[in-house]
Amino acid sequence: MGQIGRTSLKTIEWILLAAVALVFVFPFLWMFLTSFKTLPEVFQFPPTLLPESWQLENFRKAWESGPFLTYVANSLIVAVGTLILQFLVGVPAAYAFARYRFKGRNLLFGLSLIALMIPSQVIFLPVYVQLSNWNMIDTLWALILPFGASAFGIFLLRQAFMQVPDEVIEAARLDNASEWKIMWTIMVPLAKPVLVTFGLFSFIYHWNDYFWPLIMTNSDSVRTLPVGISMLKASEGGKQWNVIMAGNMMLVLPILAVFFFAQRHIIKAFIYQSK
Amino acid sequence: MKKISLSMAACVLSVTAFLAGCGGNQAANNSAAPADSSNASSQAAGDASKPIEIDFWYALSGKNGEMIEKQVKEFNESQDKIKVNASFQGDYYENHSKVLAAVAAGNQPDVTQVEVGVIGAFAEAKVLEDLAPYANGAEKKYIPGLMGNSYWNDKLYAVPFNRSTPLLYVNRDMLKAAGLDPNGPKTWEELRQYAKALTKKEGDKTVTYGFSTPIDIWFYEALVFQSGGEVVTNDGQIRFNSPEGKAPLQFWTEMIKEGIMKAPPGEKYNAWDVAKQDFVNGQVAMIFTSTGDLRGLNESAQFEVGTAFMPANKSYGAPTGGSNFVILANSPEEEKKAAWEFINWMTDTKQTVAFSLETGYMPATTAAVESEEMKKAYEKEPNFEVAVKQLEYASPRPMLPSYKEMQEMIMTEIQRAVLGEVSIDEALQIAEEKAKKLVK
Amino acid sequence: MRKAVASQELSGAISPAKEKKAAGAPFAWREKLRPYLYVTPAMIFFTLFFFFPIGYVIYLSFFDWTLLNLKAMDPVGLENYTNLVSDSDFHQVLGNTFVYTVSTVVLGIGLSFFLALWLNRKARIYGIIQAAVFSPHIISLVSVAMLWMWMMDTQYGLLNAILEVIGLPAYPWLTETGSAMVSLILVSIWKGLGYNTLVFIAGMQSIPRDIYEAAALDHSPWWRTLTRITIPMLSPTLFFLLVINTISSFQVFDTIYVMTQGGPVNSTNMLVFYIYEQGMDFYNGGAASAASVVLLILVGILTFFHFRFMGKRVHYQ
Description:
A: mainly alpha, C: 2 domains
């Protein structure tokens, strides 16, 4: 194969790569462009690529269609609150699994792994009934508590804690440091990369979660952003796609921005499950 | 060691069981029988300094939703004894779900709007407050033809709010251009002829359909009424598996086969959105939709919009529709009284006239219909009076408790027939069997 | 299971209790209690929100009940299950779930495997493309659903516009019974392809280089290297993805709820949506819990296979 052959093969590959990237990236671009168009522009066929004028109006309309400040606040409270709870509950459990020998350890850890495989869609109905009996439906607690123990988090932290060299812990114990202190002031800082990984995973998961808040909440005061945005679909006389897309930008942009800056970390966070 | 882990497990399980058992009766504690409220208004102001707050969940969006928000604001500003917190929940289906879920969870709103066909289900579930003691005869102000879906088991559970009938909407410009009567067809046969004349094709592609309607239960009910039958009786007799129940489906499938009718895609109200969008874009010349869409369509359309009775088969006929105000039974006494105040105000002549003219829904009271303002408005915009006139031929929607689920099932089965998946006879047969199971 | 956990262990889990006892410190019993105390909060949460619900829903499936009135529970034995068996709608739901799952898993994993082979290279451009391919995975499913719903609009959507440009007929997408399922499968694959691809790449990169070098020395043709070395070495990854993707497909709800509501005419009604509709729209708690148990059994079977294989895998290495 001559030089020309090799170059043209390379070019073809570059074109194909671009096509692949386009398939995955263009829809976002379309969301972006649509969110700036006027309604008549949106309902044109064939559709125009760029908006004629960039309507910021759509964002205002989306924002004003409901108490969006509340929705954003709730999303943040739930994502951060869940993460904190998972941290407080998970660190001691992971530490115990990693560094202690106790009867039933393997059984309990095995149970945690089983919990890892149970998706929320399978148990939402009985959990709903339980929370209903405890009068917790339609509260932010219903969005946080069920996720308090993260099997994934405990799994990751256990791996990280197991990797800490014995000498470090021995030294601390000789210094008469309490186990509690060792756990929080030595193990946790050493596991920082894993904490970042897990934190990203959990935050993104709960920020994006639509199903659970949809089922567990009814009132505006506890709704989260994904649910609020999905309500943009309801409109007399036809869907206002430009406003709907504008609303979705609110949900998507923060995640894409974080992704842009922290690609490696995020990919690692989500792919870790395979190990 | 084993002992510790076993006893731990026992501990955890017992704590769980305890927590699962307790709580949960708060809803029951909240319900109270309505006291004698002949002086409801004076008693409502229990604590004169702070207004009583009540929650109102509503299900109208767009212009209609804005009108509700506007009137709620007016109510709040007009007095300082009651403050209404209005919150949009989605369409009727979504609002119903949420209200029922909230009742089960113990944090239901105080007042909401329930679609007329579902009131029986709500009443049977003991979710609604008996309104008679609050109304004390005030319910006589409502138009009698709109009260058909207000009573269940002889109790008054709901009063009219945004009431409608389905109408035939026509693009008058298109009809005139085709040499047809701009007032629209009057019978099924005329509808078919008009649709044929109005359908335009360019080669293989249909550029304009003469007619479109969502294959929705409400319009099916209408056509069954027009054929002299009914879908189901309120004591559970299944009536749609009959020539009268078959006629609408035959009519629709034939028109679709001829290529003169479009069945808009989408579930439930999504299909309505498509039909309305097509109408506004001039891709369909005539559609069925609610009178409640009149103001919105008027404003979006760049052509002259006309409304008319739904075409007659054996006779004119239509179900009433829209929703009624209800008060939730589990709310505290004080809030229920305040809720009645609010409902009464919202259906006062001034408010119901304004609401009707801003949306297209019918005015709720006789006084409103006969008011000077309304009469003048009707002269200026006769389209708004058509639904009121059609009331003469209208019947209430079925409202037996199982209808909430049954209507969705019937809708699915008749859609199968219209889509050509099964024959009409089969679809009606299957639907009848399923309906019988639901009634039990 | 125990073996798997044990063999993953590293040294160092010396019980401080034993240490302290050896050192003659008082309160050694406190040390014995310590790990249990540390593990308790997590176990409480797991019990409350995973294990108890599983038992509870199985219990509930033997009653006729409704969310409207949790006080009135009517024991009906196996009636909920017999109803499911005779319900043609449920048969349709199971069929739909099966078709959706098989399509999504086979296509998703198949496509991502080839994509991974292609993109598993060092040059920076490949890293960028990998990130691009992965990006849909971290976006909220509800946004993805609304975006595709708009692009799939039969009259004004981008996709039919593109089809028209290339001269193909417009596709009915979400509006017809067969095409609606195709549409949902397409969205699912689009969202998940990046994840599968990157997992494959990670797996490929953990294959020791010397094996490939040995194959090159043997002048092994690319397809033989692929089938005799790459694929077998990737079998743990492949198996992992199979299980994860399948369980994930069973969970599908958001796209159905946003895009089709189970329609047209129940053609995209699947297990989780069915449970939701029965329990929270039609207030038929009995049917919903029986269907939940069916889902539980399916997920349970998959989980069982996963753990059995995981055990084998650890020994394999």
